[in-house]
Amino acid sequence: MLELKDLHGGYGKITILNGVNFVIPKASITTVIGPNGAGKSTVFKAIFGLLNIHSGQVLLDGQDVTRASPAQMIGHGVTYVPQGRNVIPQLSVWHNLELGGITSPDQARVRARMEEVMDQFPMLRQRRNQKAIELSGGQQKQLEIARALLLDPRLILIDEPSIGLSPNLVQEVFATLIRLRDQGVTVLMVEQNAKAALAMSDYGLVLELGQTRMHDRAETLLADPRVGHLFLGGHIEEG
Amino acid sequence: MRRPGKPVLLGLGLVALALAPVGQTDYILYILSSWLVFAIAAVGLNLTLGYAGQISLAQASFMGIGAYTVALLTLAGVPWLVAMPAGVLLCFLVGLALGFPALRVQGHFLAFVTLAFNTLFFLVARNEDWLTGGPYGLSGMPRPDFWLFNTDPNLPFYYFTLIVFVISSALMWGIVRSPWGRAFKALRENPIRAESLGLDTRRITLLAFAIGSAYAGLAGAMFSPLVQYIEPGSFSFVQSLRVLLMVVVGGSGFFFGPVLGAAVVILLPEFLRFTEGYYLMIYATMVILLMVFCPSGLIGLGQRLRDRFRPGRELRGDMKQGAQL
After folding, report:
1. DSSP assignment of B239-262
2. Which of A81, A87, A162, B258 could cross-link to A132 by cystine, CB 3.0-4.6 Å?
3. How far is B315 from chain A, CA to nearest CA, in Å?
4. Number of domains chain B contains
5. Contact B182 A133 (CB under 8 A)
């Protein structure tokens, strides 16, 4: 579904990614883990066209989308939910949702999708006229995910969805992602809460110093002592 | 829940504007018209500054482009209704041309480019006598005549200005309340968030700047028949700072902020004239105090007072982070 081939990139001339390689299958959840500064969020920005790719390739269902702009990536069916709170606090739930389809030329379709998405997230329908700031942290994250779904994405890139949420709200968000996977959407997620994220994922990917160190089934990574070692400040030995 | 207070206040405001000139002298009518004209320019700058987060220091020069275009065309016999769109369109195009290279660079580069542009405009207007009349300017521009509605006397001209102000404000209301207007908010608060929605932040900012410039052009198109005499000094950098002051004093990013700000900058000095030689000192002190104690402007001050006396729903502790976004 999504394939990264020897991706090098970074901010301007500063290189953060030093050769990222992975393939993720369709309708799966893959969690990217790694210590701080490993380049996890940077990979997402590189895929989504938000920073310079120096070399390498990004392939989406075999199609080369390297260096596509964010608007083009959305056209290819990719959406990105950045880290932190991304709702516009003073706008209503409905107007926040509407922003997800702002680049679409087919606004009638966007309206119809807004209704469909509200069916998927009944909480949003109940609160459609409320300001986003009045939602709880978990509800705000659900609103962001709902907004990302507005244009029928094939792939969602979601960066640290659990940040700032209480454990039960994290479970709510994870349950939403599992539901999306079951509906055929591919989810690529960065998560600091590695244990909980891998437990609900199909695949896991370990990044360190801008390189892919491990890529395997999530349960295999969960059982691998090297992963725990990495998070305690160690490194994964080559080979 | 929608509060009924806002439409009522808006209606009362419009009635007050309609009744304001009744029984007033020509000088007061001129001051009131002048306020509405500058309010149009400030409403435009508010889109650039308050919604798109870019500082433009050339609003007066765009007013100048609009004013000189309308002056030259109407003096040549072209009706105002044809001259005005030409001036507005020219400002929009110049805004695009000026903003395109400036907005390729992040930060306050647009502020420096527009500062230079305003200076350049002033020099061209002062030195190109063949076109602009040089330091002597242009005079004798006719006021629009719409057959049954001749705006030559000051009272009809005030109502004409009021109509243009209401229409342009309604258009701006439509812009800022449209999905694209809401995107301006997304852009101002967090560019990465805006880009994650597929918005081309540079293009939207450029569009906001060009529309803001076109509003200044419209204000210029009104200024020309209002004063019936224009010269380069009316569009100098200091005048751009005055328009900026209107936006900041009223409340940048609030829809009615610039209108209130324009009232402070244009009307307050007139109210303070009874203090004779002290009026500018008092006016300057009031503005400084306002900016020190309420940087969000008069509308922000009003909201703070309203929250103090009529607290709204208290936000939960876990939403504080969201509140700061």
Report:
1. HHHHHHHHHHHH-TTSTTHHHHHH
2. A87
3. 7
4. 1
5. no
